[in-house]
Amino acid sequence: MVVLSNQSALNELFLAKTCNPSTVFTAVPEVDLSHPDAKTMMVKACQEIGLFKVVNHGIPPEVITRLENEALKFFMQSQSQKDKAGPPDPFGYGSKRIGTNGDMGWVEYLLLSTNPDIVSPKSVELFEQNPEALRLCVEEYIGAVKKMCCFVLEEMGEGLGLGNVFSRMVREERSDSCFRVNRYPACVELEESGRNLIGFGEHTDPQILSVLRSNNTSGLQICLPDGTWASIPPDPSSFFVNVGDLFQVMTNGRFKSVKHRVLADSRMSRLSMIYFGGPSLEEKIGPLPSLVSKEEQNIYRELTWREYKNAAYKSRLSDHRITLFHKS
Ligand code: GA4
């Protein structure tokens, strides 16, 4: 038995037994955004897995590195300094606690809203307490990743014969998207324990589409249809794109909102940045009629994003929130 010296009692909370060594998922579809078949490939990946990675994405590496460096500078500050921008309301700086319903993980993070209607005192605090460079780099990165997310949605809309239905939702000014930077500290105590440390517990993303970029540290896993977990090898020069619950609903289940989680690494800390593309709070979300064939039925009912989001934020991370959309 390995003795955990580092906050041992708290650490125990996050230890999950490894039943089987997790497999490495080597078949992540890679989509070159400049390829003429990109849309077809993305639609196929969303139907089969709910995740793919994009290359030739057009986001300058400097935009990524600049934010990564500023974020690391933020996280390297003293705990008391970081805590000035927390606890999250739900936006701002958070450490170990995820959401407000008792979920915990081996992670510290910054969570920010891109919705101009949401004023978060903790985010205001964050940008007042830190160099302007942090805010500028966040804005620059969000601008670039939003553009890419909308392009991907546009392509997929075309791939489904629907035009800009999805991209419009995220592109509009009042789109209720959010952005998070997660840092999963390395946990050396894990080395020979044969156990895993949950960085961010299993969940599906509530929004339409999530766009993730991480450093070269592994940790991301997806749940395969047979219920086993598979690790996604990191690729710092690509972006990983995954389907969120709203996309699954709008496609009447054709696209899969893939369950995923993150495990901490024993040697290297992982830094990831995720843009969650969502619609405006008033947008009504339900299966799109042209995607439901005559032989099929609507699996889901209609809800506004506001209704779904409010319910989602009251749930636990691992809850199967999408059932709220199920027709009774
Ligand atoms: C999961 C996806 C995004 O990270 C997030 C998370 C949010 C949070 O961290 O506050 C939630 C989680 C996420 C879903 C259920 C609720 C809300 C934590 C939690 C327990 C920002 C989001 O939109 O939903």
TrEMBL record:
Catalytic activity: gibberellin A1 + 2-oxoglutarate + O2 = gibberellin A8 + succinate + CO2
SUPFAM superfamilies (UniProt xref): Clavaminate synthase-like
Species in which this protein is naturally found: Vigna unguiculata (Cowpea)
Gene3D superfamilies recorded: B-lactam Antibiotic, Isopenicillin N Synthase, Chain
Function field: Catalyzes the 2-beta-hydroxylation of several biologically active gibberellins, leading to the homeostatic regulation of their endogenous level. Catabolism of gibberellins (GAs) plays a central role in plant development. Converts GA9/GA20 to GA51/GA29 and GA4/GA1 to GA34/GA8.
Domain of life: Eukaryota
E.C. no: 1.14.11.13
GO molecular function list: gibberellin 2-beta-dioxygenase activity; metal ion binding
InterPro entries to which the protein is assigned, alphabetical: DIOX_N (IPR026992), IPNS-like_FE2OG_OXY (IPR044861), IPNS-like_sf (IPR027443), Iron_ascorbate_oxido_reductase (IPR050231), Oxoglu/Fe-dep_dioxygenase_dom (IPR005123)
Cofactor(s) this protein cannot do without: Fe cation
Family of the protein in this entry: Belongs to the iron/ascorbate-dependent oxidoreductase family. GA2OX subfamily.
Keywords for this protein: Dioxygenase, Iron, Metal-binding, Oxidoreductase
Chain ranges of the Fe2OG dioxygenase domain: 174-279
Any one Pfam family match given in the protein's UniProt record, by short name: DIOX_N
Pathway annotation: Plant hormone biosynthesis; gibberellin biosynthesis; Hormone biosynthesis
Name of the protein in question: gibberellin 2beta-dioxygenase
